[in-house]
Amino acid sequence: MKQFNVAVVGATGLVGKEVLAVLEQRDLPIRKIIPLATEESVGTIMEFAGEPHVVGRLDSDAFEDVDFAIFTATCEVSEKFAPVAAKSGAVVIDNSAHFRMAPNVPLVIPEINGNLARRHDGIIANPNCSTIQLLMVLHPINVEFGVKRAIVSTYQSVSGSGKRALDELAAQSLAMLTLKEPVVKEYPYRIAFNLLPQIGDFDEQGYSVEERKLVDETAKILGQPNILISPTCIRVPVFHCHSQSLNISLKSRASRKDVRDALSAFPGLKVVDGVLTARVGDSEGDENDYPLPSECSEQDEVFVGRIRLDDTVEFGVNLWSVMDNLRKGAALNAVQILELLI
Description:
- The chain has ten helices and 14 strands.
- It is an alpha/beta fold.
- It has two domains: 4-127 and 330-341, NAD(P)-binding Rossmann-like Domain (Rossmann fold), CATH 3.40.50; 131-325, Dihydrodipicolinate Reductase, domain 2 (2-Layer Sandwich).
- It has a six-stranded parallel beta sheet with strand order 5-2-1-6-7-8, with helices on both faces. Strands 10-9-11-14-13-12 form a six-stranded mixed beta sheet. A two-stranded antiparallel ribbon has the order 3-4.
- Helix 1 (14-25) crosses helix 10 (327-341) and helix 4 (129-145) packs across helix 6 (209-222).
- The longest helix has 17 residues, at 129-145.
């Protein structure tokens, strides 16, 4: 089998490290791994497949003989260096938001629109983590029953903001438990023992950047510009895993079992719904089973449960989902795109 040289830009960050871990676990035909970072991390030693690798400097010459480049850095880094990598002959898989809404750049979730991965001009965009989580649940329901409207409330862990946010949650929690004043740096307000209904800046209509991403990216990926998505995005004091509460208005009638069966059959989803399991006569599961961030960390699947009908609207369904935002929400989805290309 042909082997490939793969660069990981932002290799020392949370997502970059997760990309390296996923690449190693999935045993891809990699001849050479090339970890790259900005100046402050150059020279760091990282391990891949049992071998030490020195983190190289991200510059215009870094992509010589690179077949694929997975970017896990900022929008500014992607804007500057992704075109450089593509011009050098590498196919770029970009985790930043910079190229997602560009009309000539495919925005890909492999289970949903993986056929678009090869229709690129050198750059493929990885969707926002919350968009991936939403659509992994919404898409199979949309295919089976049609979706009129979806109200989604996200409960997003601090790992989505990077390592400094993780450290701040830990430090603030310790400070409050020891009756000290917590230091606030990464968010507008204290995150420990708190909820922040803001992820990104607000626009003139009062929606945050994260909420707009959910609406715009969903429309692009599904190819449904008029699909109705009503989002509220909340940062919560959880270290890992994002959660979502979904209220969906369907176009046709479906029972709880119908919805469960559609979700169970979709690759990359795992139904954890003890109450429903007991009601349909299956022997597996406890009636109190439902997805929890504490149980879903480091897992590849998107977990879904609390499936119940909403009798306040015609053909309404309520759901709850949990996903490791660093894996399927970022690193794994990017590597799955790479697998499609290979």
